[in-house]
Specification:
This protein is of the alpha/beta class and 470 residues long. It has helices spanning 15-19, 40-46, 51-59, 70-81, 113-131, 145-153, 172-179, 195-206, 209-214, 225-242, 260-271, 287-293, 317-324, 329-340, 348-355, 365-380, 386-398, 418-423, 432-439, 453-467, and strands at residues 3-5, 30-32, 92-94, 100-103, 135-140, 159-166, 186-191, 217-218, 250-255, 275-281, 295-297, 343-345, 358-362, 406-410, 445-447. The protein is built from 20 helices and 15 strands. Residues 105-410 form the Tryptophan synthase beta chain-like PALP domain.
Length: 470
C-alpha cells in the first residue's frame, strides 16, 4: 500500500514516509492509493474482538507486513491502549430515551485524540529508533490535539514537539495540560489568535519542502493520515457494538472541528461499513453553509463554549472532497486555491455525494449547548463536555426521525470543561489530577499578533536541529 496526494502533484510514498511527514510536497493531503473493502463475513469475524485486536485488523488493511510486521503492529497497539483507564477502551453508555454515547476520552489527555495519538507516538518511536533519526513535530491545536500529542511523545529522545495554542480561546484545564509539561522535548507557544490563524504557520512551514526535509519536520494532527487511519477503529468498533450482526445501517453523530472523525468514517464507509454521519458543529464552522449551496466565504472566528470546534475551515474537508469527487486531483487543487483566497465553491456532483453520507447540524449558540448539558444531567446524572453536548443536542431534537441505531461520539471528558459545566447549572466534576494541574508550574512562550509567528517557529526548529542533529 502506498499513499498519494489529494492534489496529484507529489510522488506516492510508503507508509513510513507518510507517517514521518505532514502535508505532501504539493500542499495536498495523503490518502491511500486504493481503499480495500470489507465483507459482512469480515465484520462478523471482527464483532467480538477486543479493541486492540480490532485496531490491528483495521490497520493491517492499510499497513503492509513489509512496512510493519504483524507482531510489531500488534505490540504498537497493545502498548498504546495499555495507558487507557478502562479495559473496554471505548465504552458505550446507554441513557434515557435511547441516547447512546461512545466515550472516546479514557486516555491520558482525556480526549478522543488519545485513541490515535498514543498509537502514533509508538509508530514514531518504532521507526525513529530503527533509523537512529530525530524528528520535530509541529502542532496547531484548538484545545485537545496539543495535550494528546504531548502525552504521546513527552520524554522521547528522538522527538521534539512544538505546540501552538490559541491563547485565551481554550479552557484553563486544556491549556494547563500543555503548559505544565516540563519535559525538555516539549515546547509550547501561546499565540494571540484563532486556530485558523495558527494553521497558517503550519501551512507556511510545510509549504517549504526543503526545510521540511532538512529538519525532519512532521505533523501529528489529523492532516497526518495515520491519525485518520487509527480513528477508523472507533468507527468500526461503535458500529459493531450497536449492530454486531452487521445487517443494518448505523448513524454516528460526530461533534466536528477539523473533521478527522468524519473523514475516518467516510473511509470506513468506502470500505463497505454501513454507516451515515451527522457533523454536529457550532456556527464558526462553514460546513452548514457549504452543504446548503456549495459556496461560502470564510470570515472571523468567535469564542464559544466548545473551543475545539471554534474552527472556520475543517482542513480534512480536502480529503472528503477528494473521496466525493472520485479522486479528481485537478478539481481539488482548484477548490483549495479558492479556499486559500477565503472562498469555498463546491461542484454540485461533489456536494450531492457528500449529502448522501453526511448531514450537518448547527447548534443554536451556547444556550443550546448549556441546555443539552443540563438535560443530560437532569435525566441521567451524567456529565458531558460542551462538544459532546452539540451532538447530544442534535439527538434530543431529532431522535424521533432517526431510523435504526445511533451513537454520539463523546470527544472529551467533562473534567476538562468546568466553566461550561458550571454555566449549565449542573454539578461540576473534579478529580485530584485536575486539582494538581491548577497547582503545577508552567512553561510557555507568548507570541503577539504583531510578531512574525512563522519566522519565530522556523528559528526554533532550526535551534532544535542544531542541538539534536539527525
Amino acid at each position: 500500500m502506498k499513499y498519494h496526494s489529494t492534489r496529484g502533484g507529489a510522488a506516492s510514498v510508503t507508509f513510513k514516509d507518510m507517517l514521518l511527514s505532514g502535508y505532501a510536497s504539493d500542499g495536498g493531503m495523503y490518502l491511500p492509493e486504493s481503499i480495500p473493502t470489507v465483507s459482512r463475513e469480515t465484520l462478523l469475524a471482527w464483532a467480538d474482538l477486543p479493541y486492540p485486536e480490532l485496531a490491528c485488523q483495521v490497520a493491517s488493511c492499510f499497513i503492509h507486513d513489509s512496512d510493519v510486521p504483524p507482531a510489531d503492529l500488534r505490540q504498537i497497539f497493545v502498548q498504546a491502549y495499555s495507558t487507557f483507564s478502562v479495559p473496554e477502551i471505548v465504552p458505550l453508555v446507554h441513557k434515557k430515551d435511547g441516547l447512546v454515547i461512545a466515550e472516546l476520552f479514557h486516555g491520558r489527555s482525556l480526549a478522543f485524540k488519545d485513541l490515535s495519538l498514543a498509537c502514533l507516538g509508538n509508530f514514531y518511536n518504532y521507526f525513529l529508533r530503527e533509523e537512529n533519526r530525530h524528528m520535530t513535530l509541529l502542532v496547531c491545536t484548538s484545545g485537545d490535539t496539543g495535550s494528546a500529542a504531548i502525552e504521546a511523545v513527552r520524554g522521547f529522545d528522538k522527538v521534539d514537539i512544538i505546540v501552538m495554542l490559541p491563547r485565551g480561546r481554550i479552557t484553563q484545564i486544556q491549556e494547563l495540560m500543555m503548559t505544565t509539561v516540563l519535559d525538555s522535548n516539549v515546547h509550547v507557544y501561546r499565540m494571540d489568535g484563532s486556530s485558523d490563524d495558527i494553521d497558517v504557520v503550519v501551512r507556511d512551514l510545510f509549504g517549504d519542502p526543503a526545510f521540511v526535509e532538512k529538519h525532519n519536520l512532521a505533523s501529528p494532527s489529523s492532516l497526518n493520515f495515520t491519525r485518520v487511519l487509527v480513528q477508523m477503529v472507533h468507527i468500526f468498533y461503535t458500529y459493531l457494538q450497536l449492530c454486531p450482526a452487521a445487517d443494518g445501517e448505523v448513524e454516528i453523530i460526530c461533534p466536528t472541528g477539523g473533521a478527522g472523525n468524519v473523514t475516518a468514517g467516510m473511509l470506513a464507509r468506502e470500505m463497505g461499513l454501513p454507516v451515515r454521519f451527522v457533523c454536529a458543529v457550532n456556527d464558526n464552522n462553514v460546513l452548514s453553509r457549504i452543504m446548503d449551496s456549495g459556496e461560502c466565504n470564510l470570515g472571523d472566528v468567535h469564542v464559544t463554549l466548545a473551543p475545539a470546534m471554534d474552527i472556520q475551515f475543517a482542513y480534512n474537508l480536502e480529503r472528503i472532497w477528494y473521496l466525493c469527487s472520485k479522486g479528481n486531483s485537478a478539481l481539488i487543487t482548484k477548490i483549495m486555491k479558492d479556499v486559500d483566497n477565503g472562498k469555498v465553491n463546491i461542484p454540485v456532483d461533489v456536494l450531492n455525494a457528500m449529502k448522501s453520507a453526511i448531514k450537518v447540524y448547527t447548534v443554536e449558540g451556547d444556550e443550546e449547548i448549556k441546555s443539552a448539558i443540563k438535560r443530560c444531567w437532569d435525566e441521567n446524572e451524567y456529565n458531558i463536555c460542551p462538544h459532546t453536548a452539540i451532538g447530544v443536542a442534535y439527538y434530543y431534537k431529532h431522535s424521533k426521525d432517526i431510523k435504526g441505531p445511533s451513537a454520539v461520539l463523546a470527544t472529551a471528558s467533562p473534567l476538562k470543561f468546568p466553566e461550561a459545566i458550571e454555566a449549565s447549572q449542573v454539578p461540576v466534576p473534579s478529580s485530584e489530577r485536575m486539582n494538581q494541574l491548577l497547582r503545577s508550574p508552567v512553561h510557555h512562550v507568548d507570541l503577539e499578533k504583531d510578531q512574525d509567528w512563522t519566522a519565530i517557529v522556523r528559528a526554533k526548529i532550526e535551534e532544535i536541529s542544531k542541538q539534536k542533529p539527525s
